[in-house]
Each structure stands twice: as structure tokens, then as C-alpha cells.
Design a protein that fits this description.
With 242 residues, the chain is of the alpha+beta class. The chain has six helices and nine strands; from the N terminus they run αβαβββαβαββββαα. Strands 1-5-4-3-2-6-7-9 form an eight-stranded antiparallel beta barrel, surrounded by four helices. A hairpin with a 3-residue loop joins β6 (132-148) and β7. α2 (39-50) crosses α6.
Length: 242
């Protein structure tokens, strides 16, 4: 029997078991960038739109990929450690492929499958034992807003930092100084993704003066109107309608 086929089967069986143990969902997502000097204005705008308090964000993200001996089907998982908690908590996340076809082309957000579950601090050792290898690690520092507006939406604003030494989060340095990433996500199902995508798109229109949000992988750069919009928001604490 072909060893690679056996290993592919083992790897796929592991992912299938993970999907059965965790809740398999879809998510709608868009991303964009904003200059750090305008982040405070964005926070003011989000505070007014969401009506909830922000949550501080400090996430150590470890990306693992399956080794060659696990078979020909590549697999990638992300281990997320929430460093804002008194006792750091771990989450394992597997992001699947994006939805394709005519329906996917007609909506402005990316729809993809996703498996996510809480895990223990021993997860990294377990994945190493399974043959996964460290691909890269990042430290995300910023804040997030979680609220309901046509769908359960999460907006995260964070600087992306790289480690100079393995797992040395205290020595992380910005990947792109002066620029922060904004990501808007919302959980969905095969039955609700159309409505959820519409809710996300509608919400993103309110942020348009400060930044442009699009499907991941599509670079749009900073918005020319950001400076003027930020100045307006800062001058009156967000009461101005943009």
C-alpha cells in the first residue's frame, strides 16, 4: 500500500474528527489597513456605531503546517494564545477554503469554512507530535468590538508584530510600522451567509471615509479621505455624520 495515501487518510481522519468535536461554521470576512495616526478616530467611530466598550487585544498567533511525511494533502492550523487573560487561554483554528462560483463573485466579502475550539496549553506539543511544523508566528496587539448589527459582527484593529526570537512576544517588532490591520468577521452558515454578508457589507459602508475593506488578499491601500475624516471625528468626539 502507498504510504503517502495511508498518511493522507490519517491526516484527513484527524481533521474530520476535529470537525465533529468542534462546531464547523462558515465566516464572512473583509480586511483593510489604516495608518496608526488615524486609529484613535476609528475607535471613536466604532464606539459610536457599536454602542459597546472595546476589548483589549493581545494575541500570540502560531501558524503550523503539516510536514511532508503526513501525506500530499497540506493542512494548516493556527494556535491563538490570548495574552490579555490573567491565565493565557488557547484556541485552535482551522480555516478552510473560500467559497467559489458565481455566487461568491457577486458578494463583496469572502465566505470561507472555519473550525474553532478552545484547547489546552499542550496543544502545540500535540501538533508537533503529529508532525506539524512551525511556519510563522505573529503577535497581534490592539482592540476589538463585538456587537450585533444584522449579524454578530467582530471588528479587530491591530498592529502585526513579528518575533525576533522563537516565542519571544516581549521582543516583537512591527511588521509594517505606522500601519495597522482592520478585520471585520461574522459567523455564518450555508443557509445564512447571504444575509450575513449583506450585513457586513452594510456596516463597512460606515467606515468608508477612514478605510476601504475588501476580501483578504486584495490590497487597496489607505483611503485618501482618511486624514480629513479623522480630523472631523477627533474635533467633536464622533458626533459628526461622515
Amino acid at each position: 500500500m502507498d504510504l503517502s495515501k495511508v498518511l493522507d487518510c490519517i491526516n484527513n481522519t484527524y481533521i474530520s474528527c476535529a470537525m465533529q468535536l468542534c462546531k464547523v461554521d462558515m465566516e464572512c470576512v473583509v480586511q483593510g489597513i489604516i495608518e496608526t495616526q488615524h486609529v484613535e478616530a476609528l475607535e471613536i467611530l466604532l464606539q459610536g456605531l457599536c454602542g459597546v466598550q472595546r476589548e483589549r487585544l493581545r494575541i500570540h498567533e502560531i501558524c503550523l503546517k503539516s510536514g511532508q511525511h503526513l501525506g500530499t494533502v497540506a493542512s494548516e492550523v493556527r494556535l491563538l494564545c490570548d495574552l490579555e487573560q490573567a491565565e493565557p487561554s488557547w484556541t485552535v483554528k482551522h480555516v478552510g477554503g473560500a467559497m467559489r462560483g458565481a455566487g461568491a463573485e457577486q458578494i463583496s466579502v469572502l465566505v470561507r469554512s472555519m473550525v474553532e475550539s478552545k484547547t489546552s496549553k499542550n496543544a502545540l506539543r500535540m501538533f508537533y507530535t503529529l508532525g506539524y511544523k512551525l511556519d510563522h508566528e505573529l503577535l497581534r496587539v490592539g482592540f476589538s468590538f463585538n456587537f450585533h448589527r444584522g449579524a454578530q459582527i467582530t471588528v479587530t484593529v491591530s498592529s502585526i508584530n513579528k518575533m525576533l526570537k522563537l516565542h519571544a512576544t516581549d521582543e516583537a517588532v512591527p511588521v509594517t510600522p505606522g500601519i495597522q490591520m482592520v478585520e471585520v468577521t461574522a459567523p455564518a452558515t450555508a443557509e445564512t451567509y447571504t444575509e450575513v454578508a449583506a450585513a457586513v457589507s452594510s456596516f463597512c459602508e460606515y467606515l468608508a471615509p477612514l478605510l476601504h475593506l475588501s476580501k483578504p488578499g486584495i490590497s487597496t491601500g489607505v483611503v485618501p479621505t482618511a486624514a480629513a475624516a479623522a480630523a472631523s471625528l477627533m474635533s467633536d468626539g464622533g458626533s459628526t455624520t461622515l
